[in-house]
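Recap quiz, item 2
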Amino acid sequence: MICLAAFIVFAIFGIFSATHRRLAKEAFWCVLRRVTFKPCQASIGEILKGKIVGWLLRRQSRWAGWVHRYFEVFSWIFVAITLISTFYTIKGAYYYARYGTCNPEHPEQCLISTQAALEKGIKNPYYCNDK
Amino acid sequence: MIQDIKKQFPFLSQEKNGQPLVYFDNACMTPCPLPVLEAVDKYNREFFSCGGRSNTHFGRQIDNKVAETRELVAKFIGAGTPQEIIFTKNTTEGINLVARGLNLQAGERVLVSDREHNSDLIVWQVLQKERGIELVILPSKSDETFDLAGLETELQKGIKLVSVVYSSNLDGYTLPVEEIVKMARKYDALVMLDGAQAVPHHAVNVKKLGVDFLAFSGHKMMAPSGTGVLYGRLARLEKLSPLLSGGHSVKDSHYDNYEAEDIPARFEAGLQNYGGIIGLGEAIKFIKQVGFDFIVKQEFELNYFITRELKQIGGISFVGADDPKSRGGIVNFYHEKMDSHQLSIFLDESANILTRSGRHCVHSWYNSRGVKDSIRVSSYFYNTIDEAEKLISALKKILGLV
């Protein structure tokens, strides 16, 4: 299921780069084929797996075997991490757009809080500020 | 000698991750040596002009170069005259030119083998639908060799054209073409050979063979991509209709009629790939310098070595004929536990070894035998036993993952 992770990653990069848009499209078709159980030529999933395992074969062939055998498991873990981090990134971006900080409860913990947000000490947006 | 030859190929001197390139996809395309690259570059820099049309000194220079290449090709394959040489962009175009140009009628029978590249299968299926011709697929014998007795049986029933691969891109097997042509002659059938995997690898003489048509590609014999040749016996070409019509294929034209050019120009409509044609001429000179004796010997040694080593790896099945002697430079196989595409990618990424995976445009063969796909190792004279050893070592490492 590395195609799904690849699709998310390439789709985001594809906003800025034409090369990644093409890869995102390939990854999308790969996902579609996977979910409809159709065979592929060499899908982007196989290519990514080839690159990762190939790299390991050159350096740590012991690990290459593990990664090759459990690639699907690693892929799902990576997809989960990607989805979760994408969710939090979008959430952070939303809060920043709305409140000037990615973490309204603790704006000082956010790397990109605006000065105004820091001074205001914005609390949880679902409760009224005690002012 | 091989190292000196390899230095002539800039493409082959590349490295990835500190590993030298090992190129085993020669049945698809072969890299161009320096003389070819320099000739094409010289054309592009110094006399890039309109051949066959412009009455400038550059135009005439191109015409001379094209004529020179045509003559080289004619001598290379033993044609009677350069007129019998038509430049195409690949083998597929050459075969299509004959298929469409013969004006086959409904009910006329065309025979092909069961190991044809799609270029020599699909066009006949299309004509089956369009014109109602009958397509006869001759199955191989159980040992995957050509069935001459079966051919005779079909010829007795009436065959207009026998169109078969000379050497198969599937497994490198070379058909008994002399016997095929002799038999076809006996029954007045025309013969066309797909020579894409034959002409670059061993001497071919169309006059001695007595074949009516032979198509092959330049990019499988170190010429630039987009080059090819169709040889046709002059008497046959005179009856063939052109596939394309247009500029330079006519001597004169009016609004209601035209006068066709002489052969071969009438089959070469439009501006040609002049750089490619010039490169093809240089590629032929290069092959002559290397010599077919060396090419055949080197390919056999590589094939024998790779086959022998692969037989020692468990789980490997070979595609096509088993004997390396009959397979030229091609070894095609698959593994019971690893997908061929994945194997090919692993070879590329872990060891910078390039092969081809899939069905090699012979889908029909794979479908008929229930084989999913395979990995093809195709060598040429510049490959070495060292590279073959690297391939085997990498395969063993990769297959150790399953």
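Residues 127-131 of chain A have pLDDT under 50 and may be disordered.
DSSP finds six helices and no strands in chain A.
End of item.
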